[in-house]
Amino acid sequence: MSRAGTWLKMLGTGAVICIGGPALVQYIRPTDEELFKRYNPELQRRSIEDGDRRAREFDEYVTRLKEWSKSDKSIWFAAQEYEEKQRAEMEAQRSQVKEDAKIQREEMRKELLGGK
């Protein structure tokens, strides 16, 4: 066989593999609707209920990424600072709740002692 024939066979085989492979995968891949129909009813209900919340969380995350990318710092440092800020806020919230509970216990103690 001549070199031209070998090259044509190689190009033809390469085209079938490069074009046919992804086309076959696309053909056999189920759509999102087909996958959703395969869920059991409990998973379908939960997916519908959680869908809005997850979409909102994703939108918030993308918004934060856009804000972080505008700063002079690396996105990773900005994300780390955001997480540290969130942790500090959570810790402050916890300490406030503990303080409120302590004050409430003291008030209850005073009421019990004063009522006797």
Automatic annotation (TrEMBL):
Protein name: Cytochrome b mRNA-processing protein 4
Membrane topology reported for the UniProt record: Single-pass membrane protein
Pfam families membership: CBP4
One GO location term (cellular component): mitochondrial inner membrane
Localisation: Mitochondrion inner membrane
Chain segments carrying region Disordered: 88-116
Primary location class: mitochondrion
Family assignment from sequence similarity: Belongs to the CBP4 family.
Gene Ontology BP annotations: mitochondrial respiratory chain complex III assembly
Organism for this UniProt entry: Aspergillus ochraceoroseus
PANTHER family: ASSEMBLY FACTOR CBP4 (PTHR28202)
Role this protein plays: Essential for the assembly of ubiquinol-cytochrome c reductase. It has a direct effect on the correct occurrence of the Rieske protein, core 4, core 5 and apocytochrome b.
Keywords assigned: Chaperone, Membrane, Mitochondrion, Mitochondrion inner membrane, Transmembrane, Transmembrane helix
Domain of life: Eukaryota
